[in-house]
Amino acid sequence: MAVPRPRLLFVDAYDSFSNNIISLLRLQLCADVTTIRIDDKRFLDVDNAPFHAFLRRFDAVVVGPGPGDPRRPEDVGVIDKLWNLPQQSLVPVLGVCLGFQSLILAFGGTVARLAEPRHGLVKQVVHSQQSLFDGVEDVRATQYHSWHAQLGHDTIEAGSSSSWQPATQAPQLAPLAWDLSDSQNGPVLMAVKHTEKPFWGVQYHPESVCTNEAGARIIQNWWQEAQAWSTAAELSSQTVTWTSLDIPADADLIPALSELIQEETGELPILLESGTKQGKPVRSETGRYSVLCLVEADRRVFRYWTDRRCLDVRVGDAVEESHAINVTESFDRIKSWVRDRRMIDGPANIPFWGGLVGLVSYEAGLESIAVPPAVADELGPDICFVSVQRSFVIDHVDKKVYIQSLNGFDDAWANEMRNRLGQIASKADKHVETRQENGPAWKSTIHRPEREGYCTKVRDCQRFIQAGDSYELCLTDRSAVTFQQDEEYSTPSPTDIYNRLRRTNPAPFGAFITLEDFSIMSSSPERFLSWSRDGLCEFRPIKGTVQKRPGTTREAAEAILKTDKEQAENLMIVDLIRHDLNGVVGLSGGSALAPKLMQVEEYETVYQLVSVIRGQLNATMQHGIDVLKASLPPGSMTGAPKKRSCELLKAIEGRRRGAYSGVLGYLDIGGGGDFSVVIRSVIKDKRGYSIAAGGAVTALSDPLAEWEEMMAKSTAVQV
């Protein structure tokens, strides 16, 4: 099998010797070399994402010589961007002459004019016999420079070990070679390497016809070191960097940790929160862990629109890819991205190490079953996933927080966060439910659906059911939310709204996501689908609701939820989900089972009827995303049969649902995933703020009771 040719990028600073360096690279390394100029207009913008994306095409970069002052931005252009690459975008770089001087300046060194310029002089160089000079003997180096770089060494003496140690001024730069032959200029630094990053530099010109054979040898040595670093980085990139910290049993870390993350990134974190009460998870079976994700500047975002049939992949603010494909193909691309980056050695007892976090709208689910949306009116992307490299996971049972990173060699960051978190934890507020609101005062008006109009829609559903078009229709409606604006009241931020929601209605699948032009503040009780790293899938549909009122006991709720009407609602969705799951696990000989059937669970404001359906994937052939895309939209939000029910609901409701009754959650880089149904939520999109709610209509439904159930769910979301 042929060895792939190195892919090198050469950054040309308008020097007359550039082609000679490129020729040397091609000859010595059999490399394919692409050239850009230092003032390439594609990459001079403040936004670095396009440059980072471009660099991913290359194995390494060589920065050439050029005229001018290395301290002057217009003389170095994009070169300075190389020294500031984020950890996940690092690439090996060799700087020659101007590139070398720019490297020195980037890491604490200085440059000064030589007493006498050295143009076309060939001098003997002393070196450390390490790194670029491993196995190299005599070096006669051709020099073309008016500036020399300084690291802050007091004295340089031949044979002294201190000559090869970093100086305090530039502690990350280790000298590799010096020219000690010039009494007029004194010792002149000829080569360095960065002690932590894959950066090397030489002051002299290895390509010159008068530089001896050592010029070719240092190019070969550089490439060997670059390959070694890349191999180690690739291995490290498959390793989760993590540490953990015990936390006080009664500490509510979420607000303080959110502030720490926002301070670190300048962006609000993505929060997938398992609600707590008196310091304990409200439902530890499904809500043991909370995940806080850093949204970083060079994040990767997958966005898909059903109306356009278009997936784009953005890095930072720049679109890197755009594909005219459908929703199924979009899921396949997302699956490939996650699979290609799979890791196996994060903390085994927590479900999320990093990966993708986001949502899938109800309309994306409709497309997957060939049902057009109700109206062609985009509310935002129908699929939106953002990459998460750094995150925190709180274990509310073991009282431990995990600090983790997918960026290779990120121990310094993890340890810094651990130390800062330790200081925060000791001062954190206590229980969520006792905290007072500190945000601005606000007064909301919720524009509920009219009772008679909703009851009419219930009767419309029943006519279709009686005609045999559906067994059950999950009718929903939307309530717009507006806020009073005057001297006394102001509009709350999404953060303010979520903080009230997590206090008044803690739920196992709370979520706060602000991406693109939308925000979701959720207190969902319902898991849609989860799968473990070894492929065990679980659905937990909720169908059947009793509102908690004064005097409502669990026994009374159970009596209501055991009626034929409530049991039938749940049973029909269980069988629908078994159908969806069997369509995937059945391909590898598996089967969908229901180990928990129609059991009553108690939540903060309601009692719910819950079932559990499970199936085992063939982990070598299938992925949880295969089940996800085969099961949308959520059966508990559609009815059965699903396709016909969705077509009927589209006509009855006459509007797009958007994020509501879609799903949100994460795709773990370790192979797992967990998604909740977007219910009991406040959503902000281009229409403004809204709450939506509904219920399953069957032939046994009473329209007024359905109205009351919808109102009970809607009023549980306090805005």
From TrEMBL:
<dbReference type="InterPro" id="IPR015890">
    <property type="entry name" value="Chorismate_C"/>
</dbReference>
<dbReference type="Pfam" id="PF00117">
    <property type="entry name" value="GATase"/>
</dbReference>
<keyword id="KW-0315">Glutamine amidotransferase</keyword>
<dbReference type="GO" id="GO:0046820">
    <property type="term" value="F:4-amino-4-deoxychorismate synthase activity"/>
</dbReference>
<dbReference type="GO" id="GO:0008153">
    <property type="term" value="P:4-aminobenzoate biosynthetic process"/>
</dbReference>
<keyword id="KW-0808">Transferase</keyword>
<keyword id="KW-0289">Folate biosynthesis</keyword>
<dbReference type="InterPro" id="IPR010117">
    <property type="entry name" value="PabB_fungal"/>
</dbReference>
<dbReference type="GO" id="GO:0005737">
    <property type="term" value="C:cytoplasm"/>
</dbReference>
<dbReference type="InterPro" id="IPR017926">
    <property type="entry name" value="GATASE"/>
</dbReference>
<comment type="pathway">
    <text>Cofactor biosynthesis; tetrahydrofolate biosynthesis; 4-aminobenzoate from chorismate: step 1/2.</text>
</comment>
<feature type="domain" description="Chorismate-utilising enzyme C-terminal">
    <location>
        <begin position="451"/>
        <end position="713"/>
    </location>
</feature>
<feature type="domain" description="Anthranilate synthase component I N-terminal">
    <location>
        <begin position="268"/>
        <end position="403"/>
    </location>
</feature>
<feature type="domain" description="Glutamine amidotransferase">
    <location>
        <begin position="10"/>
        <end position="221"/>
    </location>
</feature>
<dbReference type="GO" id="GO:0000162">
    <property type="term" value="P:L-tryptophan biosynthetic process"/>
</dbReference>
<dbReference type="InterPro" id="IPR029062">
    <property type="entry name" value="Class_I_gatase-like"/>
</dbReference>
<dbReference type="InterPro" id="IPR005801">
    <property type="entry name" value="ADC_synthase"/>
</dbReference>
<protein>
    <recommendedName>
        <fullName>aminodeoxychorismate synthase</fullName>
        <ecNumber>2.6.1.85</ecNumber>
    </recommendedName>
</protein>
<dbReference type="Pfam" id="PF04715">
    <property type="entry name" value="Anth_synt_I_N"/>
</dbReference>
<dbReference type="InterPro" id="IPR006805">
    <property type="entry name" value="Anth_synth_I_N"/>
</dbReference>
<dbReference type="InterPro" id="IPR006221">
    <property type="entry name" value="TrpG/PapA_dom"/>
</dbReference>
<comment type="similarity">
    <text>In the C-terminal section; belongs to the anthranilate synthase component I family.</text>
</comment>
<dbReference type="GO" id="GO:0046656">
    <property type="term" value="P:folic acid biosynthetic process"/>
</dbReference>
<dbReference type="Pfam" id="PF00425">
    <property type="entry name" value="Chorismate_bind"/>
</dbReference>
<dbReference type="InterPro" id="IPR019999">
    <property type="entry name" value="Anth_synth_I-like"/>
</dbReference>
